[in-house]
Amino acid sequence: MNDLRDLYQDTILEHYKKPRNFHDLPDATAHADGYNPLCGDKVKVYLKMTDGVVTDVAFEGSGCAISTASASIMTEALKGKTVDEANRLFTTFHDLVTEQGPQPDSAGLGKLAVFGGVREFPMRVKCATLAWHTMKAALDQKNDPVSTE
Ligand code: ZN
């Protein structure tokens, strides 16, 4: 577990203990459910979109520190983004945690960059990406539950 400890940086732990935008969103225009059976992480992501802009975003669920912190930081990153920007951020984040090549330029990632170390831990990649895949399903208005398997 010593290797994993490096992953649990202060930002991740802080968001795990005090997740942001952690509530339901009655006026959401889209939502999706996600489940990561490998770890048991469950997340529900709510989006409120107005004129192609994500004006509000929230999540509920229960999961490990990585999945909860990832969802929390994601909600902060998405608020105010256009749908196109949200799609681009999904791709950038996905590359950050899955690609084996050079890390993408983290300048535009802000706090999301703390997940750069996740790629070293394949079991944790699904924890980190669950909320993002779920958000993408909501963005695309897909109604099927998302599973990482
Ligand atoms: Zn997990």
Features:
single chain; about 150 residues; alpha+beta; Sufe protein. Chain: A; 5 helices; binds zinc ion
Number of helical runs? 5
Main β-sheet, spatial strand arrangement: 3-2-1-4
Number of domains: 1
Name of the top-level CATH class: Alpha Beta
Helical residue percent band: 40-55%
Query: Main sheet, how many strands, which sense, barrel?
Result: 4 strands, mixed
Mean pLDDT over the residues = 89
- Strand percentage lies at 15-25%
CATH fold assignment: Sufe protein. Chain: A
Shape: globular
Based on secondary structure, the structural category is: alpha+beta
What's the total count of β strands? 4
Q: For the CA atoms, what is the radius of gyration? A: 14 Å
Terminal residue distance: 24 Å
CATH architecture: Alpha-Beta Complex
H and E order: HHEEEHHHE
Please explain how this structure is put together:
With 149 residues, the protein is of the alpha+beta class. It has one domain: Sufe protein. Chain: A (Alpha-Beta Complex). The protein contains five helices and four strands; from the N terminus they run H-H-E-E-E-H-H-H-E. It has helices at 2-5, 10-17, 65-78, 83-98, 122-139; strands at residues 30-36, 41-50, 53-62, 146-147. A hairpin with a 2-residue loop joins strand 2 and strand 3 (53-62). Helix 2 crosses helix 3, helix 3 runs parallel beside helix 5 and helix 4 (83-98) runs antiparallel to helix 5 (122-139). The mean pLDDT is 89.
